[in-house]
Specification:
Blueprint lengths: L6 E4 L14 H4 L9 E3 L2 E5 L5 E6 L3 E7 L11 E5 L11 E5 L6 E7 L8 E10 L3 E8 L2 E3 L4 E4 L10 E7 L7 E8 L3 H11 L5 H16 L2 E3 L6 H13 L5 E2 L14 E2 L4 H4 L3 H8 L1 H18 L6 E2 L2 E2 L8 H10 L8 H13 L13 H7 L18 H21 L3 H10 L7 E8 L6 E8 L41 H4 L7 H7 L3 H13 L23 H11 L19 H11 L1 E3 L6 E3 L6 E5 L6 E7 L9 E7 L2 E2 L4 E2 L2 H4 L3 E7 L33 H6 L19
Parallel strand pairs: 25-29
Antiparallel strand pairs: 1-6, 2-3, 3-4, 4-5, 5-14, 6-13, 7-8, 7-12, 8-9, 9-14, 10-11, 10-13, 15-24, 16-17, 18-19, 20-21, 22-23, 23-28, 24-25, 26-27, 26-29
Length: about 725
């Protein structure tokens, strides 16, 4: 989505004739020189095959482009810049406009676009100015022709499913060696506001100064985390900080650019989507950018105040599609229990999450939850539910049940902090509704060859009358050979969203002890979790897989979590062109990398970080709230990653045996020292060392369960991926 109001450069039009330049976007496209790309925070550059070199930098609402043109054979040329009324997905609707000032060349206008994963539409405005050479002429283009005599254009989309080409052009008398600069600002309010932003943010078209300001802003954001480079491959450093960088791209601060209501609260957009970001991206910002996250929470509550519901997905002022639960409930709870204040009205926030839990919206495909009558009366979302109060895609009954249950668990945590004891009991009780979809007799057979996986008991869809639906546990998994199976939001989708019953079988974040007991105890749980990963059922390129990497902690096997995270990083996450296993989803993948390599992974909605050794000798994190610096230090650090198992630990100099830590570690600036070795130890394996859970842990004998050394070889030769998704093995990397 986005990519609105794009520029396109020509060194000149053939024969110096405007009408011999090509204007339609698909027809004029050219390739770029792959080796020319330069990319850094606040800067991007490339060279087109036409020889035009472009680099760009940015301010808050304004971008600055610099175009350098190849010298013509006769030494004279008139470069042309087009401003296209377009976006990346060609979603422009009717009545786009552009006006060109004949004297100054300033271009202003607007267009209506569609969101990429939501309902409704939105209007963007722009203001573009140019400098660096004298203006020869300017005007508008439409379809395949341009005119310097016409300065204003209003254009429709047309009837052919693709927007008609249209926009403005400006032609210059010369092509100076230091380039032509184009400054463009966007606004969601008006072109006048866009012009004010441009003039305030980049008043003098100073490219180097603008770039430095952008770079300095990024340095401030990245500064809280520092790592030791001792013995570490540079690619891992790049991988780590690139992950951190990507966590801060979305959500975006649109304060002052909200045309829908007036408010003194911040306005953030591009919550895209919370189903992706609640698991690790936003919890990561709680650590390194708590002030920014505080503003995001306030913005979410303000959206509730004015639109009636917390957002679950939002982009460009539009409501996005809900993929599962009401995950803003988890995000608000996570921020609340970790002590964020900063002007947040937590009573209003609690009111908002209670509405998610109790009131069904008319359009629950965009907000809140559906099927609440069944949720309250039956204790689950039925397959093919009868729901006449609200409307959405009648699929995903299993994944919605599991997510609603955890949303209610989170609400109970928030209620406890606010002293609402009756609500604590109510929502803790509902948080156990996941048990109602457990079919203890459900077996699982491989979809290719039909071999028995050896596991019985899975969550399964259930009809209103209590009889079971029959979704195969491996449908929609990474080893499902049916590439045509629908596993997303379509009406023909399955009862799980973008994943299998196998993987959703581990999604009980609030009651891992209860789940472990249901699966037959810690040994059986570990065996099942191993099978999920070892046979490639899970897809690490999608967010439901994230927590499964670290759930061994709950079974008293934190060493296996460590081993598993080293299996996935850098095999599937690397600073290469194909270095992500799936869509980054607004920094979700980046945060998985950052928190895994940092050695503290969250269970969002709980004051819990699961401890694994950092990928570096030491990591320090300075709290932007308190100014105190937390440190994680590895003793016996091995950059070959053979000695990756915690043998013992101290916290502020005192022995520490828990395999998890809480948020005060960051705000109080504590020091965690981990002594490492080559073999699994008993550290973090006792019941009293395990993370909190709604149920009590049973079936533990207080010792580690077996050894993990033999797994290295087996995992090293495992298929990285299956089907049409590319393999990504990094040769020579062990662990």
């Amino acid at each position: 989505s986005l990519g609105n109001f794009a520029f396109f450069p020509y060194a000149s039009c053939p024969g110096d004739d405007l009408n011999r330049c090509i204007y339609p976007k698909k027809a004029r496209k050219v390739s770029y020189q792959a080796s020319s790309i330069q990319s850094a925070p606040g800067y991007f550059a490339l060279t087109l095959s036409s020889g035009v070199t472009t680099d760009m930098t940015t301010a808050q609402h304004t971008s600055l482009f610099r175009f350098k043109f190849p010298v013509a054979g006769n030494g004279t040329q008139s470069p042309v810049l087009l401003l296209d009324l377009t976006d990346l997905s060609d979603s422009r609707q009717d009545n786009a406009t552009i006006s060109v000032d004949a004297k100054t060349g300033r271009m202003t206008g607007s267009a209506r676009f569609l969101p990429s994963f939501g309902s409704g539409n939105w209007v963007g405005y722009f203001c573009a100015d140019f400098t660096g050479a004298n203006i020869r002429d300017n005007g508008i283009f439409v379809n395949s022709r341009a005119s310097a005599d016409v300065k204003d254009l209003k254009i429709s989309r047309s009837i052919n499913g693709y927007p008609l080409p249209g926009g403005g052009f400006i032609r210059f008398t010369s092509s100076p060696s230091d380039g032509i600069l184009a400054r463009i600002a966007v606004s969601l309010i008006s072109s006048e506001q866009a012009c004010k932003s441009a003039e305030a943010e980049i008043p003098g078209f100073d490219f180097d100064s603008t770039r430095k300001i952008a770079e300095d802003a990024w340095r401030v954001k990245l500064n809280p985390i520092k790592v030791s480079r001792t013995g570490v491959n540079d690619s891992l450093i790049t991988n780590f900080y690139s992950g951190i960088y990507r966590t801060m791209v979305n959500p975006q601060n649109y304060t002052g650019e909200n045309p829908k209501w007036s408010s003194s609260e911040p306005y953030f957009d591009s919550f895209y989507c919370l189903w992706d970001s609640f698991r690790s991206q936003l919890p990561f910002l709680t650590i390194i950018d708590p002030n920014g996250l505080t503003q995001m929470i306030r913005a979410m509550i303000d959206i509730y105040e004015h639109e009636g519901w917390l957002p679950d997905c939002r982009m460009s002022l539009c409501k996005g599609y809900t993929q599962g639960g009401s995950n803003a409930d988890t995000i608000l709870t996570d921020a609340y229990i970790k002590g964020l204040t900063g002007g947040i009205d937590w009573n209003k926030g609690y009111e908002a999450v209670i509405k998610d839990a109790e009131v069904e919206p008319y359009d629950w495909s965009n907000e809140g939850r559906g099927g609440l009558d069944s949720w309250k009366s039956l204790g689950y979302i039925p397959t093919q539910d009868f729901d006449y109060k609200g409307f959405g895609t009648m699929t995903r009954s299993v994944s919605r049940t599991l997510e609603y249950a955890y949303n209610d668990f989170c609400i109970a945590q928030m209620a406890k902090g606010l002293g609402k004891e009756n609500d604590v009991e109510k929502y803790q009780s509902r948080s156990s509704n996941w048990r109602n979809l457990y079919n203890r007799d459900q077996k699982s057979f491989l979809l290719t060859g039909g071999a028995d996986t050896g596991f019985t008991g899975f969550f399964q869809g259930k009809f209103l009358n209590g009889t079971w639906y029959t979704q195969d546990p491996l449908w929609c998994s990474n080893i499902d050979p049916n590439t045509n199976r629908v596993c997303s939001l379509q009406n023909t989708g399955q009862e799980t969203f973008e994943s299998s019953l196998w993987e959703y079988g581990f999604y009980v974040p609030g009651d891992q002890a209860g789940l472990i007991s249901l699966y037959g105890g810690p040994t059986a749980f570990v065996k099942r979790l191993d099978y999920l990963h070892d046979t490639n059922i899970t897809y690490i390129g999608n967010e439901p897989s994230f927590l499964t990497v670290f759930q061994y902690h709950y079974a008293g096997r934190p060493a296996l979590s460590t081993l598993r995270s080293h299996f996935y990083i850098p095999r599937f996450f690397a600073p290469t062109h194909d270095g992500l296993p799936g869509n980054d989803d607004s920094g979700a993948m980046g945060s998985f990398v950052a928190m895994s390599m940092m050695g503290l992974f969250p269970n969002p909605g709980q004051d819990v970080y699961l401890i694994t050794p950092p990928f570096f000798e030491s990591v320090s994190i300075k709290s932007p709230l308190t100014g105190k610096t937390a440190v994680i230090r590895n003793t016996n650090y091995d950059p070959s990653y053979q000695a990756i198992y915690i043998q013992s630990a101290t916290l502020n100099g005192e022995p520490y045996t828990k395999n998890w830590i809480d948020h005060s570690f960051f705000t109080e600036g504590k020091e965690l020292v981990l002594t490492l070795g080559r073999n699994e130890s008993t550290w973090g394996t006792r019941v009293e060392d395990l993370p909190p859970s709604l149920s009590e842990y049973v079936g533990f004998n207080g010792t580690a369960y077996g050894t993990v050394a033999s797994k290295f070889k087996r995992w090293d030769v495992a298929r990285a991926r299956v089907g049409s998704v590319r393999k990504h093995e990094m040769s020579g990397y062990m662990g």
